[in-house]
């Protein structure tokens, strides 16, 4: 690399070469530095990055982390990670040398995050605090695993916040029926919520549905994609997990409803989205319907919980429910254990009888 003064603009510039992963040498220029010191500092930082010298700044290592990880992660997931890094982590650690960040610095950052508030002036939720720490720790883990950082200071400190989110809310079948009647004046809302409640699909899965996903002869709907709105673009991604790829058997009344709905969509292609609405639209309709029906307001995702709780109440096993909603059965058992009928009394009675027979 070389540093020169641009006499025309009275600024400094850096000429530099780099070799890409294919071994090709490229030459480029970085212009616009006010002083020679700034140009030299930038040049030194680029050399650190090229040589993966952990004397580099945290910000420079995040550039490396981005190159390594961005294409390995779903676009909407990366969008969330990038926002957290840019707004919650970089302002605090960006200009620090990554090799000099210590556990005490992580503690100080955690305290800042715990004291921080959102746009409404509310403290960050415990779940969000845990998410922030997990992202910071992931960056350090990457440095430890692949670039020789001695230890992860974030892991040494431990997490803040907690994993469990807000309490799950449910609608009973009676509550849902009142709600569905209240939103029946808007067909697209009615049919969308019917799919959410009676199939337990996720929001993104619902909004990605196309006519091709329905097999009315077999009475099934196939879930194999998810919809996201990212940077003013409609983005179709793979479902949340591998387990999320599934085929759901619909009840007969829902089969008839969806046939009726698709007939209303004149000129729609087999691979066109059948619910061309936004997540914010669904949230507004949830608010409107709950208010008009006089039922408690729940989140859109709570309709999925409502579907699962209904199936538990009907006596289905965790394994059968997991297959239907695209979960691991252990997750159903763990998250909904309190809803499954208790067998403790029956166990105790059988153990008591067994003991008597032995004696």
Unreliable parts: none
Content of β-strand: 5-15%
Give the tally of β-strands.
8
- Give the terminus-to-terminus CA distance: 88 Å
Task: Describe, in plain words, how this protein is organized in 3D.
With 359 residues, this protein is mostly helical. It is 52% helix and 12% strand. The chain contains 15 helices and eight strands. It has helices at 36-50, 58-69, 75-93, 103-115, 126-147, 153-157, 173-182, 187-199, 203-207, 252-264, 279-293, 301-313, 318-325, 329-335, 344-358, and strands spanning 2-6, 11-19, 25-33, 214-215, 220-223, 226-230, 233-237, 246-249. β1 and β2 (11-19) form a beta hairpin. It is globular.
Helix/strand layout:
Layout: E1 2-6, E2 11-19, E3 25-33, H1 36-50, H2 58-69, H3 75-93, H4 103-115, H5 126-147, H6 153-157, H7 173-182, H8 187-199, H9 203-207, E4 214-215, E5 220-223, E6 226-230, E7 233-237, E8 246-249, H10 252-264, H11 279-293, H12 301-313, H13 318-325, H14 329-335, H15 344-358
Antiparallel strand pairs: 1-2, 2-3, 4-5, 5-8, 6-7
Helix pairs in contact: 7-11, 8-10, 8-12, 13-14
Task: Summarize this structure as a short list of keywords or feature phrases.
single chain, 359 residues, mainly alpha, three-stranded antiparallel sheet, 15 helices, 52% helix, globular
Kindly summarize this structure in a few lines.
The chain is mostly helical. Helices cover 52% and strands 12% of the residues.
